[in-house]
Specification:
Elements lengths: L6 E2 L8 H14 L7 H14 L3 E5 L2 H11 L5 E4 L6 H7 L4 E4 L11 H7 L4 E5 L10 H11 L2 E5 L7 E4 L2 E4 L6 E5 L12 E5 L2 H10 L21 H32 L5 E3 L6 E2 L5 E5 L7 H10 L2 E2 L26 H9 E4 L7 H15 L26
Parallel strand pairs: 1-14, 3-4, 3-5, 5-6, 6-9
Antiparallel strand pairs: 2-10, 7-8, 7-12, 9-10, 11-13, 13-15
Bound molecules: ligand T4K.
Ligand T4K binds next to helix 3 and helix 4.
């Protein structure tokens, strides 16, 4: 058993506590705790500037934001989505009475494969819900073309894509600008966290207004309710924290980049271990560091996962099982294994390794060494080796080599 402190897949960044106290003081003084207070408004404005997006609506979390995004566009019928995601993606459809239709992923980006999207369209299809998996941008141009051709909406689950930019017309633009709506998560485990939180990015003020009404029970004034809304409002506490986190987030992403670079150096040339390609013409946020443990590695993914655990390294199998394997989805026609061969293979091979800004180089080296050792050709365990005993002994001798 390892004597090291446990190393988790992530460790949330927090600002120095003394920097947060003046924000708390203001909340205590004003007693404005929620309902579009000053910190909420300021965070929406600062996020628009920081991310380079036109309109943002803050939410309690990304799952509530996904549910509301679908409501706001009045999506019904079938929505094509990926089985290779966190379960919240498909759950948000079910909460709206929408049937998820799973399509397979691209083996390089692990995002929805546009050709498979097109093949899954039926007369009931109304929208596409792709994710920018691990922050790798989807093929947004191909998805837009398909959506235009078939008159479909696109709602991006961009939970992983805070700060991700791609080159467009000679400029680096936020990937959150794509789709009819985009939803980002500010959960504790994300690149930018407000403890819990999320947001919808809208292309125009009218859409934002409808979303803001929906997240406030449908109220448009004290006495008028125009829609069956929900309570999705972010509190002043979370918004204040977000304002402070925003000051530190670029530095945090830069350090994540260094951690990733070190992993890439340490794993270069290791047989059977695949790292994802760096996204082309894009600025990543290094939110996750997935590796795929293939047949040539010398140990299965699950054996590596267990070996790491024994060393107190808590890697995670994001995303295993596939969403389509959970009981509420596996009866769907699109959930059958033959429909999703790439997603299934990746899901059986993936391991997300610890990556976070406060991670020391020595910890990255420790993770890499543990993985490489797990895949090295095994020496037989001592207890398994039995020497042929001399005739005079009844009991076999056990020896080590
Ligand atoms: N769409 C996608 C594509 C998503 O990935 C997610 C969330 C969503 C939608 C929904 O977004 P939100 O509604 O959550 O805003 C985690 C997160 O809970 C979840 O937000 C995230 N995706 C998913 C990929 O991962 P778990 O069950 O693995 O979390 P947990 O609690 O095991 O945390 C992982 C590790 O992080 C822990 O071992 C230790 C560390 N940790 C975690 C928390 C919560 C901390 O150190 N401190 C903490 O407070 O789901």
């Amino acid at each position: 058993m390892s004597t090291h402190a446990p190393l988790f897949v992530t460790r949330p960044e927090l600002p120095p506590l003394e920097e947060f106290l003046p924000y708390l003081q203001q909340i205590w003084d004003t007693r404005v705790l929620s309902n579009n207070g000053p910190f909420h408004q300021q965070l929406e404005a600062e996020l628009c500037k920081h991310l380079g997006v036109p309109h943002i609506s803050l939410f309690t979390n990304a799952t509530m934001a996904l549910v509301t995004a679908l409501q706001s566009l009045r999506i019904t019928g079938e929505v094509i989505t990926t089985p290779y995601s966190f379960v919240a993606t498909a759950h948000s459809l079910m909460w709206n009475g929408i049937k998820p239709v799973f399509a397979d992923i691209d083996p390089v980006t692990l995002n929805l494969d546009p050709r498979r999207i097109e093949a899954a369209i039926t007369p009931q299809t109304t929208a596409i819900m792709p994710i920018h998996c691990y922050g790798t941008p989807c093929d947004v141009d191909a998805i837009r073309r398909i959506a235009d051709d078939y008159n479909l909406k696109v709602i991006y689950d961009a939970a992983h894509a805070f700060g991700v930019r791609r080159s467009e017309g000679g400029q680096m633009r936020s990937v959150l600008n794509h789709g009819d709506l985009s939803v980002v998560s500010f959960h504790a485990t994300k690149v930018f966290n407000t403890f819990e939180g999320g947001a919808i990015i809208s292309p125009d003020a009218r859409t934002k207004q409808r979303i803001d009404h929906l997240k406030n029970f449908g109220f448009i004034n004290e006495t008028t309710v125009v829609a069956t809304g929900i309570n999705g409002k972010m509190s002043e506490f979370n918004a204040a924290l977000g304002l402070l986190q925003l000051k530190h987030v670029d530095q945090a992403i830069a350090r994540r980049g260094e951690v990733e670079a070190l992993y890439r150096r340490l794993f270069a040339g290791v047989p059977g271990l695949r790292m994802l390609d760096k996204p082309v013409d894009a600025t990543p946020n290094h939110s996750y560091f997935p590796v795929l443990i293939g047949p040539g590695f010398g140990a299965s993914r699950d054996a590596v996962y267990e070996a790491l655990k024994a060393e107190q390294i808590m890697a995670r199998r994001y995303f295993y099982p596939l969403i389509s394997d959970f009981p509420m989805y596996r009866g769907l026609p699109s959930a059958v294994a033959q429909n999703l061969p790439v997603a299934r293979e990746v899901s059986d091979q993936v391991l997300c390794l610890p990556i976070f800004p406060s991670m020391a180089d020595a910890d990255v080296e420790r993770v890499a060494a543990a993985i490489i050792a797990a895949g090295a050709p095994r020496r037989p365990a001592a207890s398994a080796i039995r020497l042929v005993t001399p005739a005079s002994h009844d009991v076999p001798l056990v020896a080590t080599i």
